[in-house]
Amino acid sequence: MLKTAPDLSISGFQTDTMLGKNPIRPPMQGDGLALDVQDIFLTVQGEGPRAGEAAVFVRLGGCNLACDFCDTEFESFTTRPLDVVITRVEELSKQAPEKPAALVVITGGEPLRQPIERLCETLVAKGFTVQIETNGTIYRTLPPQVEWVCSPKNSGKGYKPIRLDVLSRTNAIKFIVSSHHTLYREVAEVGQSGNRIPVYIQPMDEHDSQKNAENVAYARTLAQTKGYHLSLQMHKIMGMP
């Protein structure tokens, strides 16, 4: 039986965070005709290679990791039929009628934990540009048009190389960096150099204004000295979800 779901309307600015308190959920099997959805909302992509573009975000519930700095709440999800998800994406994309939002970002939690093949295939067939944001630990066969942004996480014993099937699809790698969090001071080699994958660095949001300012300065220095792309969370600066 499907859970009763609230209206998936445009969200307010999301301030709830998991901070590693979420249960670790394994990958799911299934036909993808229903998905656990945290939220669907219209915003601006604030990070990575498409920063600044109007986008409909499909935030899926659950994650297979638990990161102590996670700035997103993704556990109050509900199960939604795929056709309902697609309809809501189309409705939100048309809220700017002169130029509807053409970018759909599928994120989480960890979106590849769920069977999103049908979702991606349907969105691509409808003419949307589809981007997924993944931690790089799970692979699914998605349409070749789907853009992959991989944000690897430190296991506590360093970074592991990104699995080769994920690496072969990755368009950009995004590292979270902090001048305080010892696991996230460095940008590791996870396979990006040999595959010429562009690297984006993003200051960690530590929910402390002084630490955050120092993290921005640290990320700026890394970008200037190492040639990485600086990725600020533009949506937070603008007070958007």
Task: Kindly estimate the percentage of residues that lie in beta strands according to DSSP.
Answer: 15-25%
Unreliable parts: 1-15
Number of domains: 1
Superfamily (CATH H level) name: Aldolase class I
> How many strand elements?
9
Reading side by side through the largest sheet, how are the strands ordered? 3-1-2-4-5-6-7-8-9
Overall pLDDT score: 89
CATH architecture: Alpha-Beta Barrel
CATH class annotation: Alpha Beta
Structural class: alpha/beta
Order of helices and strands: EEEHEHEEHEEHEH
- Largest sheet, if any? 9 strands, mixed
Rg value: 17 Å
Entry summary:
This protein has helices spanning 82-93, 117-125, 164-167, 209-226, 234-237, and strands at 34-44, 54-60, 78-81, 103-107, 129-134, 147-150, 170-177, 199-203, 229-230. It has 241 residues and is an alpha/beta fold. The longest helix has 18 residues, at 209-226.
Can you describe this structure?
This protein is α/β, with parallel strands linked by helices and 241 residues long. The chain contains five helices and nine strands, in the order βββαβαββαββαβα. It has one domain (34-237): TIM Barrel, CATH 3.20.20.70.
Q: Descriptors for this entry?
A:
single chain, 241 residues, alpha/beta, TIM Barrel, nine-stranded mixed beta sheet, 5 helices, 20% helix, globular, disordered N terminus
Can you lay out the helices and strands and say which pair or pack?
Layout (H helix, E strand, L loop, with lengths): L33 E11 L9 E7 L17 E4 H12 L9 E5 L9 H9 L3 E6 L12 E4 L13 H4 L2 E8 L21 E5 L5 H18 L2 E2 L3 H4 L4
Parallel strand pairs: 2-4, 4-5, 5-6, 6-7, 7-8, 8-9
Antiparallel strand pairs: 1-2, 1-3
